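User: I want to check something. If I give you two sequences, will you return the structure for each one separately, not as a complex?

Assistant: Yes, each is folded on its own. Here is the first sequence with its structure:
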Amino acid sequence: MTRGVENFQPTRLQQALSTRGLTQGQLASLIGISPSTISKWMKEGAKHSPEATTLERLANTLNLSVEWFTRPQRSAVSAPLFRSNAQALKTARAKLRGRAEWLQEMAQLFNQFADYPEVKLPDFEFREPEAISNAEIEIAAEACRAMWQLGQTPIQDLMLAAEGAGIIVAREETEISAIEGLSCWVHDASGSRPFVLLSADKANAFRSRFDLAHEIGHLVLHKHVPEGPAPERHSLMEKQAHRFAGALLLPPETFAADVRIPVSLDSLLVLKQKWGVSVAAMVMRLSALDLIDDTDKLNLFKRQSSRWGRKAEPGDDKREPESPRLLRRTIELLVGAGVMPTEGIPRFIGLSERDIEQLAGLREGYFSKAPEVVELATLRVARGDSRSPGQGQQPAGSTTNVVQFPKASR
């Protein structure tokens, strides 16, 4: 009787299926087994696990290392907050949650060898969204600016500021345009760290900046809110994160001083380039600050829709979207310092080369050509657990080649 692979982790298989967007039946068809067998692996991993040859086919199909399926998941993760809570997007949310979990684990593995910036976010311990006032949201955004030493002027690079405050950010094409991003806190022995995953599908710098500011709002305002908010509470939390984003990007006094009254679309287009915020978001901010009334707001949106529609604005192409740097430069630092070879990184992480390139903001094909080295993170020079990347993380007894997903082994 053949034996299954020891230490197989059913949660890893569930995570892989969600992230790859596959059902148990689809995976069964790809690797040539029955759906009921996969169901047993998922429910009874300790008693029923795949044989070595079957696991290798499964790993190749899902474009993951064999050894990755035997690793226990690492840390407690707070429930991510999504920009959409629609039931129709349940599968899409599961896919993005899986990507976020891969981002978190990759960052934690690199953190064994390099220190990230200290987390600098104000902690207000709000536990009930209904109890958060607009005034408190404004105070929270101002506290964030003060902690990051941003002053009251336009933020030139919000992504850089966020990463400098210890937030791990990934921005990648998700093929899920209805969800602009998600955020969560990860808790481990070293403390808590915030993570953000942003969609790059719309390739709009102004919207992407606002999306990041929105997620920072969730991290600050809703860190202590119990998981699983009801639909009506989720809607309120979204509005609060929107208000925070506007307050963070457009501080009341300096932004108001730039606004010409009566407000026109043409004057806002000028301010759009200065502040890095869309006209639509500025209109909402002006309303929040009571600089325009509801009639003014409605008229501005009507004129906007008449002149150029609601999906795009003039000047959208004049600014490049801000890109994350922290993980990319951490990898470059580790490679440049000889801590690990370029080709060893996918084996160390357990993900495919392309998954790592996308999550870390590396150019496609990075692992096939040596990169230039740019220092950012700080190496851990002296550690009690100075384990090398090859100890306890290399695939055990396997030299499986990871192939382009979703191509299956034949």
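And separately, the second sequence with its own structure:
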Amino acid sequence: MNDAILGSRILYQGWLTLRMLQLRLSGDECERTLIEHPSGSALLAFDPARRVATVLTQTRYAPLFLGVPPLAEAVGGVGEAEPPAETARREALEEIGLSLHAVEPVGHVWMTPSTTTERVHLFLAEYGPEDRIEQGGGAAGEQEDIAFSERPLAELWADTQSGRVTDAKLFMLLHALRVRRPDLFEAD
């Protein structure tokens, strides 16, 4: 392969940067749009003693634009200036009020490599009732309006299998946790 970026121009610059790339792909020259998106972290917090996980819902403008109600999601956020595990811990405190000490890395994934530079670092973290030290709900001034709830892992897994879990991060993290700890997904 002799694929290459031949040129780039900025179409828009704000929180995201939108670029038009001039490329050589498979010997042909073409243009493609690229979204420069900061990388982030996503975390599934779970209580192994009670076999529940804390998931959140929050209005996201892309699903809203398509008329889709808020999704059940894993904790997540952007943190370019800090290590991904720190971003995951900070977001867990802001969004769901949990102070997490140890986070287990699962891996990192490209969300849509055909159009965006966004990568998400995935983590799992155990918690207990004593770790809920704040109210959660999101950071002041960020218009997050986050609601969260604890849900049985068996119920979340059933939702994953029936297609009701549509957030990619939550979907991947539930699968990762089930591979590591299948006992947590047994119904009472």
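Because they were folded independently, the notes below concern the second chain alone. Helices lie at 61-65, 84-96, 153-162, 168-180. The longest helix spans residues 84-96.
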